Amino acid sequence: MARANKAAPILDPLDAMLTRLKLTGVRDQLDNLLDEAGRANLSARETLALLCQREIERKDHRRIEMALKLAHFPVVKDLASFDYEAQPSVDPRQIRDLAAGRWIANGENLMLLGPPGVGKTHLAIALGREAILAGYSVQFVTATTLVASLAKAHAEKRLDDRLLGLAKPKLLIVDELGYLPLEPDAAHLFFQLVSRRYERGAMLITSNRNISEWGTVFGDAVVATAILDRLLHHSHVITIRGDSYRLRAKRRSGLLQKAPAQETTNEATT
Ligand code: ADP
Ligand code: MG
C-alpha cells in the first residue's frame, strides 16, 4: 500500500537551530518570550538572559519530574508537611541539615528508627525528595521488595546485574527493615548490597527495631555484625520516640486510651 504522502513540516531555520541545540523550551515559547522581552524593553543581552533562564527552569523542572518518577516513592510527602511539634524527639535543625544533602555527597548512611506511625516513612520520602531537588538520584524500595528482588536475581544468576543497578542511585532508601525477619540467605544478599554501596552511595534505612535487635532481624549474628559494621561506620542515627501519629487524632477525640509513656519497639507491628 502506498504510504500517505505526508509533507515534511517546513521548519523555520531558527526553530531548527534551537532544536539542534536542544533549547526546546525557548523554541516552543519563542514568540511569547520575545513579546515579554519587548514589553519589558529588555536589551539584547537581557533578552538572551531571559531565554536562558526559562530554558534552565524548564530543564530543571523536567529533570525533577523524571527523577521523582524513577524514585518510586509510594506516596507524596514533603518536609513542609512534617509537624515537628507533634514529634518532639525529632530535631528540626538536624532534619534541615540532612536535607542539604552533604551526607549523600559523602556516601554516608542515615537510620530512622522508631515504633510504627511516628513518621519514619514520611521523613524518608521527604528527605529523598529534597535530595532529588538538590540533584541527586534516589530510589525508594521496601526491605521486603528489595530482598525478594535480590533472591529472584540470585536464582536467575543475574545477581551482579541487580546489585549493579542498586548501586547506581546516589541515595537508596530501604523502608521497613525488620518488620519481617529475613531468611539467612536473604540476610546474606542484603549484606552484599550493603558492601557494594559502602562508602560509595548513601543509604537511608527505616526500621521499627533498635540496632541492638538487628541480630534477630537478620537471623544471624555474624551477618548482622558485618552489615552493621559497614552501615554504621559513617552514619547518622535518629531514634524517634512517642506515639503513632496515625492514632493521635483518635486518641485526642477520646476514641482511644492514651498510649503508655514509653512505647517499646520490640513488637513488630505494621
Ligand atoms: P512510620 O513509617 O514511622 O510507620 P509514617 O511515616 O508512615 O510512619 O506516618 C504515618 C502517617 O502519619 C503518615 O500519613 C505520615 O504522613 C503521618 N505523620 C507521621 N508523623 C507526622 C508528623 N510529625 N507530621 C505530619 N504527619 C505525620
Ligand atoms: Mg513506615
From TrEMBL:
Keywords: ATP-binding, Nucleotide-binding. Transmembrane segments: none annotated. Residues 106-239 form the AAA+ ATPase domain. Gene3D superfamilies: P-loop containing nucleotide triphosphate hydrolases (3.40.50.300). SUPFAM superfamilies: P-loop containing nucleoside triphosphate hydrolases. InterPro entries: AAA+_ATPase, DNAC/IstB-like, IstB, IstB_ATP-bd, P-loop_NTPase. Belongs to the IS21/IS1162 putative ATP-binding protein family. This is DNA replication protein DnaC.
